[in-house]
Every structure is written in C-alpha cells, then in structure tokens.
Amino acid sequence: MNENEIGRVVVDAAIAIHRELGPGLLETAYEAILARELMDRGLAVERQVPVPIQFRGIRFEEGFRADLIVAGKVILELKSVETVNNAHKKQLLTYLKLTGMKLGFLLNFGEALMKNGITRTVNQLPEDQ
Fold it and tell me: Which of 15, 41, 121, 128 is the most buried (most CB within 10 A)?
C-alpha cells in the first residue's frame, strides 16, 4: 500500500472509533484502540516509536517518540484536546522531515466531530501517491 491508501484506512478507522467512543478519553486510550483497529485491518503498527535525530553530525537517541507509525510509512500524532494549535501541526511536520516520511496525520479525538479533528500533513509526497 502507498501512503495515501494507508491514510484512507487510518481516517476511516479513526472516524469509526470516535463514532463509537466519542471524545473525552485519554490520548493513550485512543492510541491503543487505534493501533489495534489498524492491525485488525491488516496494517503493521508500531506504538511509541523512539526516533533519534542528527544534529551537527551527532546522533541523539532522545529525538522524539512517534505515537504511531503505520506500515513504516505514515506517522500518526494523536491528541485528545479541545483544540489543536499551530505548534501541534508544526510538530508533525518536523517529525516527517526528521524521519524522511512523506505523510502524517494529526488526529484530535477531543473534537465533537472527528472529521474536524483530522489534519493531513505532507512532506514532499508526490501528487500521484
């Protein structure tokens, strides 16, 4: 599957989970449930993945932790807040740049409607992907 195909499965799963559970749970609960749902749909999922960074030629193991990485291609950053802000969106773009991945989603399960809590972020993803 390419990034956009994975993305469609992610969005569908997030909406289904939110419809059933609604907002209000802790981010970690949505993370565990979404990871399981994506695995049930046949995707490989890693949780709380430590991602090292390079700075001035030095490798730092303490770079960041990706909430979920799906099929080694798509980063998911989960929130359960009333409103996401620009810092959350910039954080995801930085994660994409540091990993070289091309697609990520900021999923805010705190929204009343999940479709309003989905932010798709790309990093040099070709149009035909």
Answer: 121
